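Hey all, sorry for the wall of text incoming. These are the two entities for the joint prediction.
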Amino acid sequence: MQYLLMLYAEEGGWARMSPAEQEQGVAAYGAYTQALKTAGALVGSNRLQGSATATTVRVANGKSQVLDGPYADSKEQLAGYYLIDVADLDAALAWAARCPAATHGIVEVRPVWSM
Amino acid sequence: MDRTAQARRAADAVARRSYGKLVAFLAAAMHDVAAAEDALSEAFAAALADWPRNGCPANPEAWLLTVARRKGVDRFRRHRHGEAAAVQLQVLAEIGESASADGDDAAIPDRRLALLFACAHPAIDAGTRAPLMLQAVLGLDAKAIAAAFLASPAAMGKRLGRAKQKIRQAGVPFVVPTRDELAGRLDGVLEAIYAAFAEGWSDPGGTDAIRRDLTAEALFLARLVAELLPQEPEVLGLLACMLHAEARRSARRTAEGDYVPLAEQDVALWDGAMIDEAEALLSRASRLGRIGRYQLEAALQSAHVERCRNGRTDWTPEVQIYDALLALCGSPVVALNRALAIAELKGPEAALEIMDALAADGRLVDYQPYWAARAALLARAHACHDARHAFDVAIGLAGDPAVRRYLQDRQAALPR
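and here's what came out:
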């Protein structure tokens, strides 16, 4: 089954880190991605630009409304994702727990709608 | 007896004997509790039509499984397409064949434990785990479960439906966790069983048949888990704890339905066989050498029983067990009960001091037993004014009319 791991984190956190800590953080994500690849579980993954770059769009009465900013105004924002393919929810939760974001933020696990 | 009645009796017997096993087997194969339940109930309906005409099959379990598998396959074809569905169909076909080819119901693998672990999975809403287990393994309908958990049938039906949908869509596995994960995951299963038991226990008069049955169903589940995981001391501890509580059922109320506190219960009314079984389980658990919350709770029950039976007045063992329990789980309810044991050892003032500190926690402010205990201690300490107030709160929070009556009598007995 495919699961989307959505990584939520407090956005100021990264800027407050020292260069050495940032380097360590990047390395941890690199290692995690490598582990997923090695296990044959990785389908896709990306880190996102900060929520200040977000724009929301909705169409109401035929007119599109474009607004600056993210959809949900919460302290933790979506910072990236991993799309993985594993046997079941337990396997997905085990990968989510290993994700560095689970330590400094929150990882939401959602099964992908299978056709 | 006519053949229809005979068929119905045979079907009832299979349902009683094997319902949980059949549902568990189908659910694990289909990765879907609701579909397994539906397929099995269709199979039972087919049996009631077929058996009166063609006679009861030699192996009714295998007959039902074959029909349920066919119904499940049909359902799959109707509702799902694509590669995943094809794989699933293959699995269903193979598993169904192997089970029916052996023609022996002992050959149906017992997946009930895996089903219980799926129902009590951390991904399932905590409050729905116990109802879900009761429905999936015992086949109780949503209406009966709703009555037992004081919920509306519609709301309970929705909660159960949502949980089953999550199991299917999120891919909750039907497996018994591996050794290193077992302890943590087993907690969820045991907690749900205990919650079901507590629901039944809260109708001590046994006036409500559904709720009284719930303690029996919870005992059945605990026995089942104990049988399937005989090396897990906490399972044995939970079963022992529940048996101890159940053994005192008929002593908890007078014939008139009045509440009788433990200290005043007639020990002759306790069920000796249940107490013996509980004690045997507890000593088996302790030989496994891993202490835990349920074993300690059972040990407490055991100490109470021993003290009451032998007229012992020393509360030291109880206080020691509470100390261990508090160190293990830090719950304010345990701390409260520990304070009550200390009251017996050192007097009400010592206990009230602990309780004042506990009240700062805030979680006990609407906990009825806290106020009842506080009232009783204040009365013993001759602080009548404060006692009267505490009784008021305790009476106001009580849901059980017998407990309310008991507290009102105690309040009225306070010197003016």
